[in-house]
Write a structure and sequence with these properties.
Strand 9 and strand 10 form a beta hairpin. With 380 residues, the protein is of the alpha+beta class. Helix 9 packs antiparallel against helix 10 and helix 10 packs antiparallel against helix 12. It has three domains: 109 residues, Acyl-CoA dehydrogenase/oxidase, N-terminal domain (Butyryl-Coa Dehydrogenase, subunit A, domain 1, Orthogonal Bundle), CATH 1.10.540.10; 108 residues, Beta Barrel (Butyryl-CoA Dehydrogenase, subunit A, domain 2); 147 residues, Butyryl-CoA Dehydrogenase, subunit A, domain 3. The strands form three sheets. The protein has a four-stranded mixed β-sheet with strand order 1-4-5-8. Bound molecules: flavin-adenine dinucleotide.
């Protein structure tokens, strides 16, 4: 059973999502953007600042509470859900955990006031091989001069600032030559929106940094220490990104189950056919097992459990791959209408696939799980 505070949070986010997002989820997907007034309302609820501590004016949610909030947003609009994941979890985490007091005061407070952040690691050259990034930051007096291109960056068109992984050392130093900087959007960041299959509206973009002058004080942690922080950020991100999949799975299950009770074939509702019962029961089990594993990973993250990195990867691998299976089954239950734009399942089918790729592919999660089992990964 859910703790009372988590239950209250779930109901309030569900109410918001039903009232404010349900009517626009299709528009967000079709137009590939979130309308300005919707963005403002989501921000005013604190959903783009979920993990910002109360000391800086944020909601100060735990990882588990953030998962529940993101799950409920994503049940209605996974685009808004993934935006909350990035701005509310993956952006505050490195600043709150490794940033200076000044960075916390400036950027965590900005998020709490409705600002939006983005996390920029992936480049055209390299996603899984993050230690090979080429975006450069040269120290020039009291500033870094940043040049390079990032790609597939969520939130980019809406973002006030970016957390950017940059190379401050030599390429051959790989992960040891990488640092993390906070870069303001103005005046030098150029954004080109990409046309993606799913999570449309979340602003997935190519982001170019052209001679961006960034104060030295915007360094998060130590010079050359950014790779470890980026990886720790991805560990939390794997849990909160998987929460979007949980919301998608819940929505697909509800849609297919309702349909199976209404639709008749051979004189009975299709739910009375054993083979449809097989699909519905399978979906119910996948949904519940996904919730159990993801909530357990979130609890372990909140406790700072030594095995939480493995749990984050196990949960992401399971939820992503079984989520794809669940939505495919939902479409099967619904027949032709599930494959048409008349049904939300068509969008959910496009959306869920991303979770097998973003924040580390399934293959990378398997690698992390085995490295952890071999005792080669430990959180700091
Ligand atoms: C919608 C969307 C939103 C995203 N948002 C962000 C964001 O906000 N910020 C950000 O920084 N990035 C973001 N990404 C990028 C995402 O994290 C990368 O796409 C992902 O890490 C994979 O990198 P890649 O696309 O370069 O694929 P590659 O790394 O080129 O991988 C291609 C294939 O090779 C496999 N592979 C690669 N290396 C290995 C290996 N060592 N062992 C086994 N298999 C391997 C992969 O598993 C995959 O199957 C987003 C991506 C998408 C699709």
């Amino acid at each position: 059973m859910e703790a009372p505070n988590v239950g209250v949070l779930r109901s309030s986010v569900r109410e918001f999502a039903e009232k404010r997002l349900k009517g626009v989820a299709k528009v967000i997907d079709e137009s590939n953007r979130v309308p300005e007034d919707v963005l403002k309302d989501v921000a005013s609820m604190g959903y783009f600042a979920l993990r910002v501590p109360e000391d800086y004016g944020g909601p100060g949610l735990s990882v588990l509470e953030s998962v529940v909030a993101i799950e409920e947003l994503s049940r209605v609009s996974s685009a808004v859900g993934i935006m909350a994941t990035v701005s509310g979890s993956m952006v505050p985490y490195p600043i709150a955990t490794y940033g200076s007091i000044e960075l916390k005061e400036k950027y965590l407070s900005l998020l709490a006031k409705g600002g939006i952040g983005a996390f920029a690691l992936t480049e055209p050259c390299c996603g899984s091989d993050a230690a090979a990034i080429t975006t450069r930051a040269e120290l020039d007096g009291g500033e870094f001069l940043v040049n390079g291109t990032k790609t597939y960056i969520t939130n980019a068109p809406y973002a006030d600032f970016f957390i950017v992984a940059v190379r401050t050392g030599r390429p051959e130093d790989r992960h040891r030559g990488i640092s993390l900087l906070v870069v303001d959007r103005e005046p030098c960041v150029k954004i080109s929106k990409l046309e993606m299959l799913g999570y449309r509206g979340s602003g997935t973009s190519e982001v170019k940094f052209e001679d961006c002058r960034v104060p030295r004080e915007n360094l998060i942690g130590e010079l050359g220490g950014g790779f470890k922080i980026a990886m720790m950020t991805l560990n939390e991100g794997r849990i909160t990104t998987s929460a979007t999949a949980l919301g998608i799975m819940q929505a697909a299950f509800e849609e297919a189950f309702e349909y199976s009770k209404q639709r008749t074939s051979m004189d009975v509702p299709i739910i009375e056919h054993q083979m449809v019962q097989y699909l519905i029961s399978e979906m119910a089990v996948l949904l519940e097992t996904s919730k159990l594993l993801l909530y357990e990973a979130a609890r372990k993250a909140d406790e700072g459990h030594p095995d939480y990195i493995r749990y984050a990867s196990m949960a992401k691998l399971y939820v992503a791959s079984r989520g794809v299976d669940l939505v495919r089954m939902a479409m099967q239950v619904m027949g032709g209408i599930g494959y048409s734009k008349e049904s939300i399942v068509e969008r959910l089918y496009r959306d869920i696939k991303m979770v097998e790729i973003g924040d580390g592919t399934n293959e990378i999660q398997r690698m992390v799980i085995v490295r952890s089992l071999l005792g080669r990964i430990r959180p700091k």
